[in-house]
Amino acid sequence: MASLPPSSKSPEEVVQESKYERLTRKFRQEPLVPVGLVATCAALFGASVAIRKGNQNSANKYFRWRIYAQGFTVVAMVAGSVFYGEARAEEKQKKQEAERLKSQQARERWLADLDAYEEERKAQIARREARKQARQAREQQS
Question: Is the distance from CB of 71 to CB of 43 less than 8 angstroms?
Fold first, then answer.
């Protein structure tokens, strides 16, 4: 479909999702992934503190926790993909259908705008023609 003129786009079509909105939406979609990310960061921070203090046993323990936290994060991502995959496919299909309807409505508005413009143009031509004929009639009378 050809691009539509700006007048045919509704305000909802122009608004886009901000980075913060996208982040919160993703966190709501898979809530365990941020937990895994925080756990991984906490383990890395603990390991860096232990290394600075020179405590090798504690550092190794934190590194093991980091591996477990990363594993948890990967499992959470895979499980979320499997568990929510079907729901996301349905949601994507609904979104595509809604976008198709919006696009169709925008096209209809655009065509209505073109029809209105064409009618206005025809009326303007008819008025010019009527003035021209009136002027010619006056000239013939004089």
Answer: no
